[in-house]
Amino acid sequence: MLEIRNYSKSYKEGVKAADNVSLTVESGDIFGFIGHNGAGKSTTIRAVVGVLDFTDGEILIDGHSVKDEPIECKRVTAYIPDNPDLYDNLTGIQYLNFIADVFDISTTDREARIKKYADLFEITASLGDQIGSYSHGMKQKVAIISALIHDPKLLVLDEPFVGLDPKATFVLKEIMHDMCAQGTAIFFSTHVLDVAEKLCNKVAIIKQGKIIASGTMEELTEGHSLEEAFLEADGNEK
């Protein structure tokens, strides 16, 4: 579903934020992308979803090139950034209907999906309020619902659990499991290694723009915790 081939991205003075990154996320995967701050996680994710331009390498989503066929890629992709930037002057329901209009979702489908997810996240009663009045956690919930409204084949999340309360975190993890059981591919970054260990079937560790370890959770941990595997891989690359 997602294939990154030899992707690189350089910023000022030739410093590479991503250096020859290659990985594959298949349908049904929950793929964790972990690393220190500044390791290249967000840079890679933003290139995948078309926010950040790049020249080196290739990124394919459902067989389509992010560079050459961006609209085809966006039709099947949903992206939840680490800091949701929504339209504060709209109400929650206006924003969700706007996103549903972008993806040409029928009235019946959008109403059913909005009700389902708003009820799960317990924000149904607040959807008539302006987004500007929402807390960070509520904005995050609206961003999540907007990402799910077109039933994406690929869900990309950058630190999705930041700002969510424990119950909302549990709900999101359950949604992710359910989506993958139906064939959706999920690619997400996180600093919370315990969450990644329990949630993911595959993991890649990135350091200074390079993938230093990648594989199934069993292959990377070999009977140890993900934290231990991460620290060992990180230490071996010094």
TrEMBL record:
Record's keyword terms, sorted: ATP-binding, Nucleotide-binding, Transport
Alphabetized CDD domains for the sequence: ABC_DR_subfamily_A (cd03230)
Transmembrane parts of this sequence: none
Superkingdom of the organism of origin: Bacteria
Molecular function per GO: ATP binding; ATP hydrolysis activity
Record keyword Lipoprotein present: no
Gene3D superfamilies in UniProt: P-loop containing nucleotide triphosphate hydrolases
Domain ABC transporter: 2-233
Protein name according to UniProt: ABC transporter ATP-binding protein
Organism encoding this protein: Butyrivibrio proteoclasticus (strain ATCC 51982 / DSM 14932 / B316) (Clostridium proteoclasticum)
